[in-house]
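SAMPLE LOG
Freezer: B-3
Tube label: C17
Construct: single chain, 320 aa
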Amino acid sequence: MPKLTSTFKATLNPSAGCCRRISQIQELPVAGYPFYSKPGPLVVVVVVVVVVVVVVVVVAAVAAAAAAAAAAAAAAAAAAAAVVVVVVVVVKVESCNNRSYVQGWEKRSPKRAESKDENLVVVVVVVVVVVVVVVVVVVVVVVEGVVVIVVVVVVVVVVVVVVVMVVVVVIVVVVVAVVVVVVVVVVVVVVVIVVVAAAEAATTIAAAVVTVMQVVRVVIAAAAAAAVVVVVVVVVVVVVEAVVIVATAVVVATAVIVVIQVVVAPAAATLVVIIVVVVVVVVVVVVVVLVVVVVVEVVVVAEAAVVLKKKPVLWSHEAA
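STRUCTURE (predicted):
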C-alpha cells in the first residue's frame, strides 16, 4: 500500500479539554487517519434524539400535572434549555474536532472538509427538530387548558340550571301554600254558616240574621270566585313551568352529551355523566311534584264547589 509521509504541527488550545496536541505524525497511511477521530453525523443524531425524547417525556408529565399556562411556560423553558444544550454540545464537538486539522490536513484530505459541511447540516436538522417538538408540546398544553376551561363552564351552567329549577320549585310551593290558606278560609266560613244555621232559635233576630247571611253569602261567592281564579292561574303557571323545565332538561342534556362526544376528554366523561343523571332525576321529581299539586288543587276546588251549592237551613223560610 503506498504511504504518504508528512510532518506538521497543530497548535491547539490546551484548555479545550476534548482536544489533544499533535506534535508530529510520521508515515501516515493514505487509506486511513489513525489519529483523533471525531464522531460522525449518525452519533450526533442519536444523541440528539435521546435528548429530545427525554425532554418530551418530562414536558408531557409537567403538562398533565399542571394543565395550565404554568405548564406551558415550564415546557417551553425546558425545551429551549434542551435546544441550547444540544447546540452548545454540537458546536463544542465540532470546534474541538476541527482544530485537530487546522494546519495542512484539510488541504490534503477533501473528505474532512466535506465532513464539516455534513456536520453543519446535522446541526441545522437537529435544531429544526427540537423547535418543532417545542411548538407541538406548547400547542398540546394550550389545547388541554382550553378543554379544562370548557369543562368548568359546562359544570357552572349545569349548576345554574339546577339552582333556577330549585327556585321555581320554591315559588310553586309558596303559591300552593297561599291556595291552601284561601281554601281553609273558605271552609271556616262555611262551617260558621252551618253553625249559625243550626242555632236558629230566636225569631226576633231572624231579619238581622238573614241580612248578615246575605252579606256572608256574597262574601263566600266572592271568595269562591277568587279561589277558582287563583287555582286556574296556578294550574296555568304549573303547566308552563313543567314545559319549561322539561325543555330545559332536554336542551341541557343534549348540550352535555355533545360536549362529552366532541370536547371533553374521556377522563372527565364520568363526572359529566353523573351531572346529567342528577339533572334528569331532579327534573323528573319536580314534574311529579307539580302533577301531584295540580291534582290536589283540582280536588279541593271540586269539594268547595259542592259545599257552596248546598243552600243553608237558615234560608229555608225564604221558600215559605
